[in-house]
Amino acid sequence: MKSIGTTFITLALVMGLAAHGRDRLDDWVAQTKLPPVLSEVAVEVRARDGAMLRAFPVEEGRMRLAVQLEQVDPDFVAQLIRYEDHRFYSHTGVDFVAMMRAAAQAAWHGQVVSGGSTLTMQVARLLENSGTGSVTGKLRQMRVAWALERRLSKEDILSLYLHHAPYGGAVEGIRAASWAWFEKEPYRLTEPEAALLIALPQAPEARRPDRHPVAAFAARERVMKRLDMGATDRQPDIPRKMRSIPQDAPHLAAMLRSKAPTALRHDTTIDANLQRQIQALALRAVAQQPKGVSTAILIADHTTGEILAHVGSPAYSAAGGALGFVDMTSAIRSPGSTLKPLIYGLAFDEGLVHPDTLINDAPVSFGTYAPQNFDGEFRGMLTVRDALGLSLNIPPVLLTHEMGVARLMAGLRRAGVDAKLPSGQAGLAVALGGAGMTLRDLVQLYAGIAQGGRAQTLHEQPLAAPPSPPRQIISDVAAWQVTDILADILPPRGTAAAAGQVAYKTGTSYGHRDAWAIGYDGRHVVGVWLGRPDGTPVPGAFGGDLAAPILFEALGRIGHTREALPLPPSDTIILGTASLPEPLRIFQPRDAVFAKERHSPVVTFPPDGATLRRSGYGVPLKLREGVLPLTVLVNGAPVLTQLRERNAVLSLDVAGFNEISVIDAKGRSASVEIRLD
Fold first, then answer.
1. Domain 589-676 class?
2. Which residues carry out catalysis?
């Protein structure tokens, strides 16, 4: 009886000591201070189809992409557990059986044959960035592993491993590794690819395929053999290059990140394939340009307002002195002649002119402001259609003066354009580019014209709600008339497009600082800017020579989704000059008939001694002062009598010298001599 009692006492003592030790171990584990278990992951910018556009590195430049278990091939997860820790779902963080096996194998072979660390212990090491060579380091990993198992689920621990496992260089996590080595998401891995990614974390630098292909190949084969993945002698070669995670649309990505700095994912309307093509186009476009020249290209679907491609500069760097970090789609620049289509559209709606109205391209001044054509020449009387097609400066200034600059500014506001005025006041110079705008502003303006005059708001992210009803910038008839004129402008030489397929306009700002081309077809609108970001001139840079070819090449990249320009609205008046109503045949200021007559008549155009080109439309005659009615003689013969206006067109089209005389109702006269050639 005594021996039995002693045995019970001894057993009770052992159990008590074990319980005490267990309690102490529990307390020790419970008091473990865990490292942060929330993984910092890259902010991702996605294309319209979900494809990766850009990812921003995390701390120390590491590339770690967010991943959910369902985004990883289930076979990969199962193979990883079988190879690394087949008792993962049964142990509590430390597998003593595996540790003893590893120790015995090391003693027998004289070197480490297999590791004893569980996936949980590896997670502990990765979270703390600790080594495995010391006893204290291993004890710390065991303690953290036990604590992790108590506080997290097995799925959480597995997720941490899939986020932090190293795969060479700055690549961490299965998703970043799958992109870096195979350019694909991890749910599409093949068996050989999965085997390599199982083997790499054990020695990520020693087995890097691009630097140590033999070691990488051998490690992959060991994994495949152990997991019975298939005949290794027929497997494809390992990758010899680490691919870059996509870094497309950098300016747009940076803008979205700054607008929502806490968001981990930004979905966009960008077409990933088109974006890459336009980025390559921008690089080629500036390759032959002087140092410091940059370009920006914006493509949108004007039927929806979705931006499909956004290139703020050819390269997101300071290479070549071009300030590539500056997004030139949002830089404020002078628009040059690109506002002229809006001016003519507004004038059509005002009833001031029709596309076939004759308008006088002649010297004119408004106080101290005397606009000139780009080439310094004047064409005389010509149609509005030709004036816009030739991008002459005098006619749009005349029209802006007649309808008022406020009307032009209101049209810009309806289009969603916030024009910046250097002096704070809008003057006639706005018509020729005397206001600051962005490439995005101009693309949005032309998108509205392309949409039948209805304002279209551009957006680079999917809309959360249907947009508000659009405002009317100009009427659908005026929009079609503008489009019809712009579509008649011949495409640049060497482009595949034919006349009539694309409506476009070019522009060049003062001093050759900005070269523009904006155009559209039935669905897409494209804007191109070329110049120097610092605003210094680019000698010889014209929108028609430099920006227009880029525009047409960009449109060509869109492919089969291109659509034809619209047909005219049913109420469009399509008539030649001679068939137009009398007030629309020749443009003249509304107050011309009501000018006060106090002095002898003065011929303001043509000037005495001028040499004019024959246009086929005759010679415009502009008069000032004198008492109505007037009589006009050419070479002594009366050609106009009882003239009650101070503007007329003389039927002169024969080369040589001609004397033009004007006599008012009081017999006072004036004359000039001109030459036609």
1. mainly beta
2. 84, 337
